[in-house]
Structures are given as C-alpha cells and as structure tokens.
Q: What sequence folds into this?
C-alpha cells in the first residue's frame, strides 16, 4: 500500500513565491532570482514529502502562475496575439506572464487571457483558447525539466499532467464551426512525446488529472476518452497511468472507466463522495489499482484515523493490500501550507489548533494511516492513533461547537421567517413614500477607494498602535468625506464607503461567534493572489451589532438615504473553511440568523435601505446539475432568512457580480430582494437576455460600467446601455449603478466615472414624458 500526493501548494508557506513574483513584475528583482525562488520552493516541497514518507511524490505540480496555463505553454497553445513575443530577447517566462496578465511594453500592447474558476474551488485558472484545426507542438519542456530536476535530488517523481481531455474541455473555442474536443487528434501526439521523454528519463508512473470523469459528460466525450486512453496504454505498456478524479464521485461514468478505459490506477475523491467506494470496489477490474482520496484536500480538519482505517481496510480486503494506495482527496493546492506556523498565533485557541491539519500535516496523516493499516502492532502507529482519537474526540465532545440556543433557533425557522410581510408591489409603494427617489435612482455598490492611508490606519489599529478613539475618529472623518462627495456628485442612495473593512467576509467573521482566524493560512486564488479564509468551527451567532454604529453615523450626516451594508450568509459560508460535522446548509442558516439580527438592528437605528451582498451565490452551485435545486433551495432560503425580518418600508438590496444568470434567474427572483444590482457592463448588457424571457418582478440595477478598469465611461455610453436595458426591463424597475464596489479604484477615477453616471441618469429622466 503506497502513499501518494496529487500536488503540493507552490506559493510557499510564507508566500515566498508570491513575493518573488510581484517583485519581478514590478522590476524589483531579477529573472535569475525569481527562477531561484521557484527552484527553492520545489526542492523544499519535494524534501518535505520525502520526509513524510510519501511514496509517489508529484512533479510538475509547481507553477509560476497556473497549471492550466503551464499546459497551454507546454503544448504550444499560444494565441496569435502573443506570437510576436516569441523572440530570442524575451524570456519564455515573460511570454507566459503576458498570457496570464497582459503585456504593455514598447510596441506591445496585448490583453491577458481569460481567467475562470477551477471547478467549484476558489482557485482560478487561465482558460485555454482554441481555434479550428489548431496545431500543437511541444513548446515548453517544463514537465521534463522538473522531472529531471527532482532526479538530481535522487527522487523519481510522478509527473502530473492535466489529462488531454480535461485540458481541452477546460478551454474555449475562439471561433465557430468546430468543437474543441475535435482537436484531440492534434493534441495527443504532443502528450505522447512528453510521456516518451519522461519515461526515457526513468518515470514509471504518470498522473493524468481527468476531473471531468467525475462530471456529466456526453457520449461523444466518452468515446474520445475510450480512444485516447486505449492509445496511450498501447503506446506505453510499461508506464503506469494513474487517472485522477476529484470534486465529485465517478459513479455516473463508472461503466466507461471500468470497461472502456485502459490505465493502471484510478484515484477517487472519497471525501466528496464516500458512497462511491462500494460500487467502485465491485466494478473496477481486478488488475487495476485503486487510490483512495481519503484525506481532505479542500478543508483544514484533522483526518479521523479510525474512520479512515476502516475505509482503507474495506478496500484492502476486497482488492489486496498491494492494489490500494492512499492519498489526499485532490491536490493540496487548496489547503494552507503548514499548521506549525500557527503555533505562535495566540488568536487561534490551542484546542482548535489540535483539530486542524494543513498540507504538511496531511502528508503526515497519509503515512500514519499507511503504517496503522500495514503494521497494526507497531508501537508508534498505536501512539499516533490514540493521539488522533483524542483530538477527534476532543472536537466531537467540545462544548464550544454547539450552542443549543442557535440550534433551537434554526430548527424553529418557519416559512414566515423566510418571507417578507407583504408582496413586492405593496412594499414598493411604501418604500416610495418614504424614500422619495427619482426615476432611475443612482447608487453605488458599497466600497469607495481604499487609500494607502486607510489601510495603514486599519493595520495600526489591529496592531494596537493607535487607540480606538483615534481609529474611530479617523474612520468617521473618512465616512464624512465619502458622504460629502456622494452628495456633491448628486447620487440618490448613498453608502458609508466600507473603509473599516479589509475583506467583506473577514470583517464579519471576526465579529461573529464560531469563527477562528489563522495568521499564515494562505491559499492561492490566482497567480500571486492568495486568500486567507476564516475557519468556521462552531455555531455561528452575533455577539453584538457589527455595522450599526458606522451606518448610523453616516446616516446622521445626510438627509439622503444611506445603505446599510452587509455580506450575505451564502458568501460568508462559501469563502470560509466550513465545519464538516454538520451539513453546510445548517451552518448557512446559522449565519443567516446572525445577519438577520444585524438587519433588524439597522432598521431600528433608522437605516431605510439595507444591502446584503451575495457575490458567491452562483459559485456555490454544485458541479452536477441534478444537485442544483437542493443547493438553491437552502441557499436562497438563507438569503430570505437574513432579509425577511424587516418592515415593508425597509428596502432590501442585494448585489451579485457575475453575468451568467440565465440558468438560475427564477431562483434569483425568488430571493425577493427589493433591488438587485448585478455586473453587466463587460457583457454589454448581454446578460439581460436572461430577463427577456423571464419577467423579473422586482427592481434591478444592471451595472453600467466596469469598475475593474481605470477607464472613465462616457455619459452617452451609459445612456446607451440603459436604453438597451429598457428593451428588457420596464424603466420604473431600473436603477443606475456601477458593476461592483469601487475599493480598488482611486478617487479621481471614481469621481469622474460617477459624474458621468449621474449625468446619464439625469438625461434619462429628462427624456421621460412628464404627465401634467
Ligand atoms: N459591497 C462590496 C463592495 O462594494 C461588494 C463586493 C463584491 O461584490 N465582491 O466592495
Ligand atoms: Zn460585486
């Protein structure tokens, strides 16, 4: 029984690679230094895995930006607009970064490739671009080089390749008249030549990531799978092919996998889908080995050895000990690096620390499991097992996990708690009376520019270098400035600007019960960007008000309505490490109740408009469509719980920043927010197609300009977009606002853009025929 790993985080436990990358991009460090940092990270990771007794250690899991982009470069899938950068003078790495981030230098001005979410994770990959009859060739030898590099350290690694079919499926056709899967015949020879080269250097086992084998795929794709994996095996009878699946179970494609594909080892994700084991054990041909993805690669909880050993023994009893491998459920890319770094973190209670396990610790878990299964008599194994049981029991029996009152509240929720008092139209009338807004009311999404000064004050306060009074006064003066600017601009519904928040989830997590925070729990989100998700370990509830004093202060400065600004329950859940000892839906309901309390307090404090942001609502959608409804039911319910405690005259807004609405528009409508603001401008209102066939009942603010770009939108463009929107949505349902929050922009851009926007609204109002 071997242990193996699918991939290790490459950003560095102290984010060494992040720092080196950003220094390189800003010209502060040399090419040579960046290459050296990459080398150090790889060597460190390999050594660490070796020390942890991992039998099959991956190579080519390192990346300077993204493993999908690596594959594009490897097979020469380089879009035309970058071809001019393929010269002697420009290092290939710069070409690679140009594809990831765009390139503006001298005569070159090329945009970046598109980026999108890696399945249902918070990792983003660079989307390959495909053209009809596209040719591929071995362009970058990274796979081979890294295998060779590890060999220099005395390691025979398991090269990791994104499988050819998943690679194609993850991309996009950039012209019509073909399907990208047709390119497989041109692509496969490049894979074959890579494998030939690493095999010649001594590789015995090759990992091919084919996550699409755990998803819904068409019969055409299945046919391609069959042909490709037959051909690969025929070419390399002596190489061991490990096909890895993750993020879902393989049950739906098990017939294909077990009867039609030729390979040697199948890896399955037993954390996401433990139930698949029985059927896989039964159906997978005897000559194939099975890798059990038993240690959670997506979450930070300690593995329960007793339970895992039982599972492993079940597999061992059916297939024999030599045919079973143990591994993390997926690449450890999605977990923080090293819990040891938290030992000095006094904010993280030590009992909670005992319940956690990060990437490095997860490797230790694998080898402990292996020893426990193979040598149950081993003394060290027994000690490890009993320590593990103690930790697991300590968590299971801990008093801080369950708050009976919270549980009771959740269990007593009724349909009434999830519904506003009256229907939307009745509410709208009451809100109109109170708010007295013009047609095409203007507003923003919440945050205003987060200047260096603001960030400095926040961190000084966090480090206790300035007093609470000094901090509060500073923030109040920022709020004052922001309110004044909005009044001068002529906006209708104002915001306080969110200067006190560094992150829309962390800000609430820090104030809620049931959350814990790490100091170094960074996880790569894209390129050099990392996030540090909070850990939800126990029942969630509110200690006291979280935003009321800021909102109340802001409202005291102006007669215009100021929006209270909250993060919604689904987004807080989605962007945290969530407890795994109760269903996500339950945790989400707890968060929803905490937000509901805050909403009510805002209302009592005289706040008439309250926005509950849910940018992560869509990304929570399960990978398999037949699970969508179940998710949407509890997710939308959670939003309704958070927003339904108020009187009719209180106007609830929500905000989402994505444009793929069509398939869930009816659910979005069911959220029943009085106003929804969405991202729209980049797709030129195309997403409004969703509204063409569906009569969206409530008010809506389709974002009129892209806040991700420094460009100032012209008034006539905005007028044009809103006129276009009127083709889908009656004008008395339309609001005018930017796409998203303005925190990443500077004040100059922000003021100019908003000025354009307000003038556009005025022009549109003037064009409405006046009834005399
Ligand atoms: N209110 C938040 C802001 O304006 C919303 C951010 C988001 O949608 N991601 O920053
Ligand atoms: Zn947004």
A:
């Amino acid at each position: 029984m071997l242990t193996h790993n699918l991939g290790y985080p490459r950003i560095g436990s102290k984010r060494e690679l992040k720092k080196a990358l950003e220094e390189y991009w800003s010209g502060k460090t040399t090419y040579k230094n960046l290459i050296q940092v990459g080398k150090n990270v790889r060597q460190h990771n390999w050594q660490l895995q070796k020390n942890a007794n991992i039998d099959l250690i991956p190579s080519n899991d390192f990346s300077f930006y993204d493993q999908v982009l690596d594959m594009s470069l490897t097979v020469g899938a380089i879009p035309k607009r970058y071809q001019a950068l393929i010269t002697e003078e420009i290092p290939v790495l710069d070409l690679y970064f140009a594809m990831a981030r765009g390139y503006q230098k001298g005569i070159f001005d090329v945009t970046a490739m598109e980026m999108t979410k890696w399945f249902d994770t918070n990792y983003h990959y660079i989307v390959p671009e495909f053209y009809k009859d596209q040719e591929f060739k071995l362009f970058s030898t990274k796979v081979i080089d890294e295998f060779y590099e590890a060999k220099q350290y005395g390691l025979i690694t398991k090269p990791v390749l994104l499988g050819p079919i998943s690679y194609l499926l993850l991309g996009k056709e950039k012209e019509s008249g073909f399907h990208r899967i047709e390119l497989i015949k041109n692509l496969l020879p490049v894979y074959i030549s890579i494998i030939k080269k690493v095999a010649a250097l001594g590789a015995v086992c090759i990992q091919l990531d084919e996550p699409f084998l755990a998803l819904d795929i068409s019969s055409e794709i299945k046919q391609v799978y069959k042909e490709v994996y037959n051909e690969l095996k025929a070419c390399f009878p002596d190489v061991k092919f490990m096909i890895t699946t993750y993020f879902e179970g393989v049950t739906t494609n098990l017939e294909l996998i077990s009867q039609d594909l030729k390979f040697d080892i199948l890896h399955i994700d037993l954390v996401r889908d433990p139930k698949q084991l029985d059927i896989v054990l039964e159906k997978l041909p005897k000559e194939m080995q099975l890798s059990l993805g038993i240690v959670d690669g997506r979450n930070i909880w300690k593995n329960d050895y007793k339970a895992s050993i039982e599972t492993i023994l079940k597999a061992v009893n059916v297939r024999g000990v030599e045919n079973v491998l143990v591994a993390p459920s997926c690449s450890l890319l999605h977990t923080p690096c090293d819990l040891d770094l938290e030992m000095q973190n006094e904010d993280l209670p030590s009992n909670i620390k005992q319940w956690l396990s990060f990437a490095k610790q997860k490797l230790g878990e694998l080898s402990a499991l292996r020893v426990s299964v193979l040598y149950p008599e081993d003394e060290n194994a027994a000690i490890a097992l009993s320590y593990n049981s103690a930790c697991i029991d300590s968590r299971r029996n801990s008093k801080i996990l369950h708050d009976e009152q919270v549980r009771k509240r959740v269990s007593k929720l009724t349909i009434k708690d999830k519904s506003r008092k009256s229907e939307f139209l009745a509410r709208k009338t009451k809100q109109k009376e109170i708010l007295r807004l013009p047609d095409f009311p203007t507003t923003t999404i919440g945050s205003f520019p987060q200047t260096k000064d603001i960030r400095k004050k926040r961190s000084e306060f966090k480090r206790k270098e300035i007093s609470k009074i000094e901090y509060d006064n500073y923030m109040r003066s920022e709020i004052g400035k922001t309110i004044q600017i909005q009044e001068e601009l002529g906006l209708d519904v104002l915001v306080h600007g969110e200067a006190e928040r560094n992150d829309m989830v962390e800000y609430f997590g820090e104030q809620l019960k049931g959350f814990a925070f790490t100091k170094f729990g960074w996880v790569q989100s894209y390129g050099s960007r990392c996030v540090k998700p909070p850990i939800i370990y126990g029942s969630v509830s509110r200690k006291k008000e979280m935003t009321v004093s800021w909102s109340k202060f802001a409202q005291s400065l102006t007669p215009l309505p100021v929006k209270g600004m909250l993060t919604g329950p689904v987004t807080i859940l989605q962007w945290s490490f969530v407890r795994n000892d109760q269903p996500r839906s339950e945790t989400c309901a707890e968060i929803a109740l905490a937000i509901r309390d805050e909403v009510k307090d805002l209302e009592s404090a005289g706040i008439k408009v309250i926005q509950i942001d849910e940018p992560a609502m869509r990304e929570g959608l399960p990978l398999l469509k037949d699970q969508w409804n179940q998710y949407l039911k509890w997710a939308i319910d959670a939003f309704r719980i958070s927003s339904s405690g108020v009187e009719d005259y209180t106007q609830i807004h929500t905000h989402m920043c994505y444009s793929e609405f069509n398939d869930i528009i009816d659910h979005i409508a069911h959220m029943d927010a009085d106003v929804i603001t969405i991202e729209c401008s980049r797709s030129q209102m195309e997403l409004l197609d969703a509204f063409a066939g569906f009569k969206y009942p409530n008010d809506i603010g389709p974002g009129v300009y892209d806040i991700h770009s420094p460009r100032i939108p012209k008034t006539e463009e905005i007028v044009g977009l809103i006129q276009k929107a009127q083709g889908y949505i009656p004008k008395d349902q339309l609001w005018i606002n930017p796409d998203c929050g303005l925190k990443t922009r500077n004040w100059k851009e922000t003021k100019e853009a908003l000025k354009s926007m307000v003038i556009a609204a005025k022009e549109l109002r003037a064009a409405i025929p006046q009834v005399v």
